Write a sequence for this structure.
C-alpha cells in the first residue's frame, strides 16, 4: 500500500469493463471527501499498467474482466510486490471467488448492486486503516497495534448492511446527496429537501450514522433545545 497520511487525498483506480459502471463508481468515489479517481481501466492488463503509472492508494477491482479475472490481477500485483489496497467490486458471489480474494490480500469484497452509502462506508474503513498504520509509523508497534492492523477495519469485506424494512436504496441516495450538498442537516431540514416526513428522514439518517456513512451530533439552537444534526464523517473530510 502506498504510504499516505490521513490528511492527504486518497487516489483511487476504478477497474470495470462497463463504462457506465465506471462512471457511476467514479461519481460515488468522488462524492466522498478526501477521495479522488486518478485513472480508470477496462481490462486486467490496463489495470496493472495503471497501477504502475499512477501508484494509487486503492483499486476498485471487478472480478470479471475481458482478458483475465480480477483475482489474477490482484495476484499479479502482489507478486510484483505492490501493496496497493484492493477492494473487489463485483457481481460475483461464488464462495471460491470470495476466498481467493481474501487469501490474495484484498481489503474487502463489495457485491453489486450497491448504493453510494455502501461504498462510502468501505472508503471510510480504508482511510481508518491508513490512519492506524500512520499512528504506528516509524515506531515499534505494540501487540494491540499489531492486532488492529491484522484485524482490519470492522466490517471490511463483509456484506453491506441492508437498509431497514421500509427504507429504499433510491431514497437513501437522495438523503445522502442532500447531506453532502448541504454539509450539515437536521432530520426536519433533510425531510424538506428530499420530500420526506421528519420521522422517516431521521430513520435514514440514523441508519447511515450507524453504518459510518454519516455522523450525528447534538447541537443547541437559539431557544436552547438540542437538535441532532448529520454530516459526512469528519475522518473523511
Amino acid at each position: 500500500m502506498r504510504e499516505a497520511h490521513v490528511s492527504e487525498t486518497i487516489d483511487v483506480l476504478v477497474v470495470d469493463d462497463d463504462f457506465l459502471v465506471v462512471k457511476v463508481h467514479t461519481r460515488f468515489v468522488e462524492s466522498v471527501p478526501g477521495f479522488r479517481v486518478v485513472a480508470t481501466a477496462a481490462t486486467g492488463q490496463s489495470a496493472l499498467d495503471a497501477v504502475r503509472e499512477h501508484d494509487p492508494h486503492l483499486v476498485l477491482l471487478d472480478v470479471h474482466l475481458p482478458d483475465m479475472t480480477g483475482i489474477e490481477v490482484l495476484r499479479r500485483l502482489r507478486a510484483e510486490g505492490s501493496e496497493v489496497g484492493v477492494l473487489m467490486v463485483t457481481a460475483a458471489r461464488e464462495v471460491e471467488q470470495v476466498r481467493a480474494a481474501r487469501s490474495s490480500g484484498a481489503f474487502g469484497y463489495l457485491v453489486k448492486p450497491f448504493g453510494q452509502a455502501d461504498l462510502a462506508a468501505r472508503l471510510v474503513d480504508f482511510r481508518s486503516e491508513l490512519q492506524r498504520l500512520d499512528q504506528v509509523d516509524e515506531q515499534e508497534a505494540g501487540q494491540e497495534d499489531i492486532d488492529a492492523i491484522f484485524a482490519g477495519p470492522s466490517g471490511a469485506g463483509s456484506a453491506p448492511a441492508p437498509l431497514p424494512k421500509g427504507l429504499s436504496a433510491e431514497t437513501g441516495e437522495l438523503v445522502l446527496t442532500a447531506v453532502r450538498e448541504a454539509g450539515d442537516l437536521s432530520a426536519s431540514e433533510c425531510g424538506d429537501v428530499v420530500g420526506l416526513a421528519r420521522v422517516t428522514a431521521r430513520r435514514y439518517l440514523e441508519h447511515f450514522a450507524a453504518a459510518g456513512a454519516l455522523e450525528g451530533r447534538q447541537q443547541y439552537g437559539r431557544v436552547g433545545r438540542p437538535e441532532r444534526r448529520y454530516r459526512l464523517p469528519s475522518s473523511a473530510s
